[in-house]
Amino acid sequence: MSIGLDPALLEALSTLAAKLGTTVEFMYGVMRRQAFVSGALDVITALLGAALGIYIFRSCVRKARRAPVEDQLFYYIVGGMCILCATIIATGSLFHGTNLIINPDYYAIQELFKLLKDIK
Q1: Range of the domain at 74
Q2: For residue 14, is it within any domain?
Q3: Residue 74 within any structural domain of the chain
Q4: How far apart are alpha carbons 53 and 46 in whole angstroms?
Q5: How far apart are CA 83 and CA 15, in angstroms?
């Protein structure tokens, strides 16, 4: 199996793989699968975070409707802050997760470069 890397890079990776007791193809395959799994977990985390934010917001709105007029603003502010935080977290996780799922090769090669940099 050839992963289509520069021969010099492939030689450096082969040295690293030999130190780890494996092959370059195996390391690359594991890192590629791990990128996909990590991306799927990021997408799931984003969806769960968004659902939790919506749930907290809806519960704050329900409490605000039952609360006295002077306390309603507090519940609306808390609910709005929860939606804002959930949106920020979900957007970041969703962006990173979809990138990992769509292009796992890029992240696998990026991780191999990090390994080589740490070894040198």
Answers
A1: 24-119
A2: no
A3: yes
A4: 10
A5: 49
Condensed to tens digits (0 to 9), the pLDDT of residues 10-65 reads 777 788 788 888 887 888 888 889 999 999 999 999 999 899 999 999 999 999 99
Two tokens, residue 70: 């002077």
Q: What CATH number does the domain containing 59 carry?
A: 1.20.20
Q: How far apart are CA 5 and CA 69, in angstroms?
A: 66
Q: What is the 3-state secondary structure (H, E, C) of the chain?
A: CCCCCCHHHHHHHHHHHHHHCCCHHHHHHHHHHHHHHHHHHHHHHHHHHHHHHHHHHHHHHHHHHHCCHHHHHHHHHHHHHHHHHHHHHHHHHHHHHHHHHHCHHHHHHHHHHHHHHHHC
pTM above 0.90, yes or no: no
The residue among 117, 62, 116, 54 whose CA lies nearest residue 84 is 54
Q: Is residue 3 part of a domain?
A: no
Pick 37 or 2 by higher pLDDT.
37
